[in-house]
Amino acid sequence: MSFIIYDITFLVLFTLLVALFLYTRKHNLKREGLLYLYRTKFGLHLIEWTSKKYARILRPLQYVVIASGYLLMAGMIWLLVKLSYSYMTSPSLAQQLRVPVLTPLIPYIDRLFAVDFLPPFYFTYWIIIIAIIAIPHEFAHGIFARLNKIKIHSTGFGFLGPFLAAFVEQDEKQMKKAKKFDQLAVLAAGTFANIVMTIFFAIILWIFTVSVFVPAGVYFNTYATTTIATEDIQTINGLPLNEAQGFLNSTNETLIFLKTNTTRYSASPVHIAQTLNEQRPAILVYEDTPALNTRLRGAIVYVDNKSIASYDELRTILLSHTPYDNITITTKDKQGAEQHFHITLAEREGKPYLGIGVIPLQARGVRGFVYKFITSARDPMIYYESRLGDFGIFVYDLLWWIVVINISVALCNMLPVGIFDGGRFFYLTVWGITGNEKAGMRAFQISTWVILALITLLMIKWVFVIF
To answer: Using CA atoms, how far apart are residues 150 and 146, in angstroms rounded to an integer?
Structure first.
């Protein structure tokens, strides 16, 4: 039985249990907007004990916490500006991503927007991840609040149907009267906790991947390419150049053929149209190869029933043939479904030729470090199979989501926008720099409206592109 059946059953049971819980404890509930808040004293003793027991460590740690807040805020603003520029100027990015810029974290988001670059996001994942994100985040706020003598009234959960969130309720009057440094530490503590959890689960993900997954195939991300002079193009899909423009604008084909005097090539209609419209002197095209002609795709796992676990093995098996030999290549898609391709090898410099390639990902700085960390456990161009079967894939996807969502929450929560911790953090910072509270409030309001306006523009672009 598909895990989705179990997951949906769990969703229904969880919703019923939440409804029963709310009904039997309605005297502890308070409605605020669309949310129902359930206040308790759970965890208050732990918060108090931690803040006192480790005060000598936590006090100097506040400098690191605040510094992380500024780094996250700067990083998120940079990412938002870069994404916005790419999103608004690219003719295809919104269509490729499909997921709207402003998307609530909901189960089955991968199916809702029909994207294949995200792993499944089950309701079971959602419940586990909410706990891993919210509890450390809120308790960190509480611990640093008590460290700075700010009273905590209660802890609890907020309910919106089956969806829930955790909270720690501090004394707002004492918070506002606290020193700016103390307030900054309390505000940034939650995102700092998310960063700690990101690092912790990234290490677990790395260990799990190395232990459980073994190479079982190879991916490729391009067919063989070459560059030709634009003036050498004679026909496009059999049409002369002066008749091809209408075809290029109307076709839904991913790749189409173009010919020079002696050779046939392929390229996307959009790429060809841009090259002709901008009168570029040259164009990058796909060569006429066996891989392209058969539309070879997926991870190559077998060649003539011989297993492939590396590019060296693939290269050795291909070179054991002669040009124009007939071979059968078996591939697997991301869901593990097999597909068989019957291919006649071509000839290149006297050797058998398939016509595939790999474009390596180039990344520097922080991205380069993260990429090297990830690829040291699992090369993205290698297809892996789990020693634990579907359970191994289930756990891997869960750990992947935990890491991605933890860092995403940490970044987004430090945006200088009113609803996030970053909004008040920014307001206090400007106030502290200028010595003028009104200047801080004005800067906070401006940043909030600018970012909301930018996100609105991105959403409008998404609506027009998708619909």
So the answer is: 5
